[in-house]
Amino acid sequence: MPEHVSILQLTGAAVLALATVAWVVGLTRVLRRSLAEPTAWHAAHPLYGLPPQRAPLRTWSPSN
User: How far apart are CA 43 and CA 35, in angstroms?
Assistant: First the structure.
């Protein structure tokens, strides 16, 4: 235990280290879960919050 460091600083460093470990564990679990999902699930469930897509506009050209 360092001599010139207060208990509050040591406690803060320990809490920060634990929070970092918890964040890394959570991030790896989320990334593993997202990689394990099949990509067909995303195509089967459209985003209902977005408006439906329209056909692209036709542009006039002299060759038509």
Answer: 15
CA 58 to chain centre: 37
Q: In degrees to the nearest 10, what's the CA dihedral of 12, 17, 22, 26?
A: 120
Rounded to the nearest 10 degrees, how much is the dihedral formed by the CA atoms of 34, 35, 39, 41?
-30
Q: Name the maximum alpha-carbon separation found in the chain.
A: 85
Tell me what pLDDT residue 26 has: 95
Chain segment 7-59, per-residue pLDDT in tens: 999 999 999 999 999 999 999 998 888 776 666 555 566 667 777 777 777 77
Q: What does the alpha-carbon distance between residue 18 and residue 61 come to, in Å, rounded to a whole number?
A: 65
